[in-house]
Amino acid sequence: MQRPVTAPPIPERVRTLAAGAAPTHVSVAASRGPAVSARGGVDPEGRPVLLVTPGHPLYAQEAQSVVTVDLIACRDLGDVRCPRGMLKVRGWLEPVPADELRRAAVAIAEHCPDEALFEAVETPGSGSVLTRVDVAQVIYLAGMESGVLDAEDYLAAAPDPCHESAERMISHVNGYHRDQLTHAVRRLAGSLAAPDVWLWELDRYGATIRVGVDDPELLRVPWSRPAADGEELENALHCLIQHARS
Questions:
Q1: How many CB atoms lie within 10 A of CB 212?
Q2: Which of 1, 50, 160, 178 has its CA 20 to 30 A from that of 168?
């Protein structure tokens, strides 16, 4: 009997993290200066897109300069923001083509809202510009997993097809159904039971439950088969909680 796949392939996992990640810093390879703050997000292809304003060190930076962008994906657990994964994307700066500006801005705004994004798109010459990174490699740290993906593997992958639905479900469960989730954890793994129980990750292959905030333990619960879409993912999550309560 074939065992179920318990977790997404690493390239898919990294692309999913990148899809909801925000840039924090960027450094230029040829510069001796420290990394500087960054604004923007990630486009649908997984490339970091930076919102650069006049006066920012990247504003006058030449195209094809080698840079490293730090991205971080977080999860809010009540009033505490916790990092889910950190990525370092190394590559070459290039302008976002004019016919791709709006698409990139819309994709970024879904996860990293910033009014200045659309000012850069709708008011050419306003000063702010969008520049992106042509990816060379991605260093990732997610939980206990770390490593390096080359551009071919990273760009050929896609985020979990259910990730947008998954984020909405996580927000709903953590906001309104943590009592049920806690009860489910006690039935599944009593030794991990604690007051702080949260739905940490949710994907087509299973769910990860976080027990504790400061010194957490993670419980991975795989589905019997991958969810094909958001509806199947919702059914799998519902069955997990309801079965554990029965």
A1: 15
A2: 50
Residue located via tokens 């700066």: 93
Rounded to 5°, the CA angle 203-208-212 comes to: 145
Query: What is the domain extent for residue 138?
Result: 10-156
> How is residue 183 written in tokens?
């009860």
Each residue's pLDDT tens digit, 130-180: 999 999 999 999 988 999 999 999 999 999 999 999 999 999 999 999 999
Q: Based on the domain organization, do 67 and 118 belong to the same domain?
A: yes
Q: Give the list of residues 6+ apart from residue 219 with CB closer than 8 angstroms, or none.
A: 185, 188, 189, 192, 208, 209, 211
> Exposure of 10 by Cβ count < 10 A (0-12 exposed, 13-18 middle, 19+ buried)?
middle
Provide the 10 A C-beta neighbour count for residue 53. 15
Q: What is the CATH number of the domain that holds 206?
A: 3.20.180.10
- Same domain, residue pair 64 and 111: yes
Q: Among candidates 100, 98, 110, 101, which has minimal Cα distance to 41?
A: 110
What whole-number distance in Å separates Cα of residue 131 and Cα of residue 48?
A: 9
Q: In this structure, are residues 118 and 105 in contact, taking their beta carbons and an 8 Å threshold?
A: yes
Residue 4 has pLDDT above 70, yes or no: no
Hey, which residues does 77 pair with through a beta bridge? Answer: 80
Residue 1 within a domain: no
Sheet order of strands, 197-203 included: 197-203, 206-211, 217-222
Read off the CATH number of the domain in which 51 is found: 2.30.110.10
